[in-house]
Amino acid sequence: MSEPTEPTMETPTRSSRDPAALREQLRRWLATQLPGGSKPEVSEVSSPSATGMSSETLLFDASWSEKGGRRSGSFVARVEPDPKDVPVFPVYDLESQFRLIRLVGERSPVPVPNARWLELDPKHLGARFFVMDRIQGRVPPDVMPYNMGSWLMDADPADQRHLQDSSVATLAKLHAIDASAKDLSFLELDVPGATPLRRHVENQRRYYDWVRGDRRHPLLDRTFEWLEKNWPEDEGDTVISWGDSRIGNMMYDGFTPVAVLDWEMAALAPREVDLAWMIFLHVFFEDIAKQAGMPGMPHFLRSEDVAAAYERYSGVAVRNLSWYETYAALRHGIVMARVYARRVHFGEAEWPADVDEVVMHRGLLDRMLDGSYFR
């Protein structure tokens, strides 16, 4: 079997669905949501290519007749992936995502899209989905990563710092929502564990078991063991954890967030889960840039700067961040193993003899485990 020798950020196949068929299906479905005689028309359907690896995202415009005139709008549909396409996650609770987006919009200044319609009957598109208003803005790309050439990398350092700090401030605003409210109990993970963090890690362990199947990833196994041996004495407050808290899931007007997107990994958890994920995803991209001999953005989203900004905006001290960054590296390693399985499914790769090679940040994670990364 072939073995990867250099880091690659090729855009993987995400879906086998036919865009032309989706266009007609959306048109027929929209007619059921609008008043009679609306005669909706739907544009060609597209998907973003620079971000997104999990739920299928469809972008489309629509027009319809209403009150004697013609109206139009731009929309985004989040669609449950086809099981045949090797989805990244075993479960896609679109109803919970839709509900959370609305609750966050109602209870905080966190910018979220207007969630318009939830469709739980799969007969329309062959899967459940929900539709939001499309927000205009720009997103730091994942492919190629923003720190290897992008509008963000080319920006003035002061603008980069504004984007960094305003993104951290957005997390602080999200975490200020009262997570003990009864109508947020649907975010509690239904797995064993005495605390939200225990349940969060147990949920990741079960996700890993689902991802690996008959394979084992020794590096990821060792990381679970390290987390247990170094468990934080004080887990801190429980907040609404966005889960996929990274700048690639935010949309910006200039350098200020105008939309927080992709809520499929949301749960109740300590605030450091989100902070460490935001930090680590940049570290991951920096590691790729370094391996490619590129300068990257080493001054951006540094742990100490993110923690200081968060404490400034929230008034809450950040604790045990190195533990949470290691946990973030583990979580991302599991996702990468699943994404690689998708590439194998679509004939874009073969499994290497050493399965840990699919974890592109294996060297980084090794240094976290032996402590040298945090010195």
Architecture overview:
This protein is α+β, with helices and mostly antiparallel strands and 375 residues long. The protein starts with 18 loop residues before the first helix and ends in a 5-residue tail after the last helix. The strands form three sheets. It has a five-stranded antiparallel beta sheet with strand order 1-2-3-5-4, sandwiched between helices. Strands 6-9 form a two-stranded antiparallel ribbon. The chain has helices spanning 19-33, 94-107, 157-175, 196-212, 218-229, 271-291, 303-314, 321-345, 362-370, and strands at residues 41-42, 56-66, 69-79, 115-119, 129-133, 238-241, 250-253, 256-260, 267-270. The chain is globular, with a radius of gyration of 21 Å. It is built from nine helices and nine strands.
Keywords:
375 residues; alpha+beta; Phosphorylase Kinase, domain 1; Aminoglycoside 3'-phosphotransferase, Chain: A, domain 2; 2 domains; five-stranded antiparallel β-sheet; two-stranded antiparallel ribbon; 9 helices; 9 strands; globular; disordered N terminus
Give, in order, the helices and strands: HEEEHEEHHHEEEEHHHH
Strand content: 5-15%
N-end to C-end Cα span: 37 Å
Structural class label? alpha+beta
